[in-house]
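In this section we walk through a basic example: taking a raw amino acid sequence and producing a predicted 3D structure, encoded as discrete structure tokens. The instruction is simple. Fold the sequence below.
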Amino acid sequence: MKVSELKPKAAVPEIVLEIVSKGETREFANERGSGKVCSTAAKDEDGQEVTLSLWNEQIDQVKEGQKVKIESGWCSEFQGQKQVSTGKFGKMEVLE
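The resulting token sequence is shown next.
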């Protein structure tokens, strides 16, 4: 799958993204629990960018310039921008 094919509120069967930059790690707490989240800028092989949300232990698994494969992920939208994450059931694999 490519960034251009992403649709908000839809499943992401598989996508490979390169981490362009990592933002600040933020702590959160809500009715479902607490943890850490980090927004990263990521691009696909065509150079199209999307925000990739990393949660908890995922944050320390990747560095700028590395590629990750998201399987069974989820696409959401925040302030008009598409965001990809592993969601509840997905997984992330660091490729390099």
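Looking at the output, two observations stand out. The chain has a mean pLDDT of 95. Strands lie at 10-30, 33-43, 49-55, 67-78, 81-85, 91-94. In the next section we compare this with other chains.
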